[in-house]
Design a protein that fits this description.
single chain, alpha+beta, two-stranded antiparallel ribbon, 2 helices, 4 strands, disordered N terminus
């Protein structure tokens, strides 16, 4: 993990206590990992769900990964782009 003057590159810009280490996972030889069952249950992740992975880069290196359920990401995109698309189609 690359560090900057304020800590890690993933230092959250939100109120303290929002982010925490939930689990440590290992990556196997095939690049797979297992999310602990308790975390999957609390996040509502079920077999067959898709996760979108976003990255944060600093100095050309990926230093932070963020996973969000693809269904939730689709909803966020629709919320953000929906009003803009309505304005465009009115013209």
């Amino acid at each position: 993990m690359a560090k900057d003057k304020a800590g890690t590159c993933c230092t959250p810009a939100v109120q303290p206590g929002t982010y925490k280490v939930e689990a440590l996972v290992s990556i196997d030889a095939r690049g797979q990992m297992v999310l602990p069952k308790d975390l999957r249950d609390r996040a509502g992740i079920k077999e067959g769900d898709k996760l979108a992975i976003s990255t944060l880069e600093q100095a050309g290196k990926v230093c932070c990964l963020l996973m969000i359920k693809a269904d939730d990401l689709t909803g966020l995109v629709k919320e953000m782009l929906g009003p803009a698309m309505q304005e465009i189609t009115k013209k």
